[in-house]
Amino acid sequence: MKKANISKTTFYRLAKEFKEKEVRIKLSRYNLELSQMLAKTYIKYGLNTDEFIVLNATITLVPYGQKPNFWEIGQATGKSATEVKEILISLFEKEKIKFNGSGIDESALFLELEKVIRAEMTLVDMLVESKAYHDMMGSDNVHHFGEVELLPCEFEGEIQAVAVTSQSDYWSTAEMWSRQRMIELANYILKFTECVDDEWIEQYNTDLYSKSEKQKEIDRVRQEKRKEERKKRDLPKSGYILLIRFPNSNYKFTYTTSLLLDQKISNTKQQYGDNIQIVHTLETYDTLKFYHKFIKAQFSNRINGDIFELTNEDVAYIKAEKFPSNAMEWFEGPTPVEA
Fold it and tell me: Are 12 and 102 members of one domain?
């Protein structure tokens, strides 16, 4: 299937909308999941026990986007309405929660808690997840987690180290990885070098090159096949065009590029009835061009749907078979060039 050709701006907008919609779906289906995420991460998210209890009750009891009922939350948590209000205001001031309209923005909270969870993921887990999402989006316009840039770093007047930065895209900058992530990556790379030798790496690169060359050959064959198909479509197709007349004096042109003339006449009578009149037949060199580019253009003011309201002069003109030069080429074929 051919991919749609969209601009980068449109792609990023759609990707962002997709992500936001995905979050909303998760929240609508799994409100319990947000509560569970909070229970797992509230300490690392910087909440104390009272803040967790009140926020968790708010998530559980208050429908999405609605104003919290402090008294109801207080009943569930054993606190007064004033205490509930003060805790929620404190969480807002510490930027632990945001408000969407009159209620807590659960989408924003979900994303913040997800960051805490992702911080606990290994590089391998993050890479697998990122590549799966990248492959699902099916575009080269965004980078997955493993596509990074190595940045030479200068200390005391000379380059002594290399840092890792992410690749920037439409809505993010090329941030440098945390020190802990770079240490983790260095350990993975060291472990890899302990498991393989240069011969293994050389064989890997050889296989990679071979796979690339095979794909190039497959692409070349496909391209040649498409060219041949286009050539076949462009080749003139000989056939027959019939002008038929209905009992109400209306006319119709019908053509074939696959049947003999007798077969086409027989099929036409079966389709429209024996009371039609075969007014004239034309044996054509390039049937499709003659019909679409000449017949329909020549009598465009006579068409009513697929029915032609021809005059006697029009019919006589067709029977005479004296057409303009381009139409004669489609009718009889190219004129031989004299030596």
Answer: yes
Question: Minimal CA–CA distance to 78: which of 50, 59, 114?
Answer: 50
Q: How many structural domains does the chain have?
A: 4
Phi then psi dihedrals of residue 83, to 5 deg: -65, -40
- Each residue's pLDDT tens digit, 176-226: 998 999 999 999 999 999 999 999 999 999 999 999 999 999 999 999 999
* Lookup: tokens for 56: 């968790």
Q: How far is CA 245 from CA 269, 310, 315, 333, in A?
A: 11, 10, 10, 27
The range of the structural domain enclosing residue 281 comes to: 239-332
For the stretch 230-260, pLDDT in tens is 877 778 999 999 999 999 999 999 999 999 9
Cβ neighbours of 77 (radius 10 Å): 19
Q: Indicate which CATH number applies to the domain containing 38.
A: 1.10.10
Q: Which of 119, 147, 169 is the last residue of a domain?
A: 119
Q: What is the 3-state secondary structure (H, E, C) of 46-86?
A: CCCHHHHHHHHHHHHHCCCCCCCCHHHHHHHHCCCHHHHHH
Sign of the dihedral defined by the CA atoms of residues 15, 18, 22, 28, in that order: positive
Last residue of a domain, one of 235, 259, 293: 235
In a domain, 91, yes or no: yes
* Buried-exposed string 227-260: b where 16+ CB fall within 10 A, e elsewhere: eeeeeeeeebbebbbbbbbeeeeebbbbbbeeee
Tokens 């080429």 belong to residue: 329
Question: 24 with 96, same domain?
Answer: yes
Q: Is 153 helix (H, G, I), strand (E, B) or coil?
A: strand
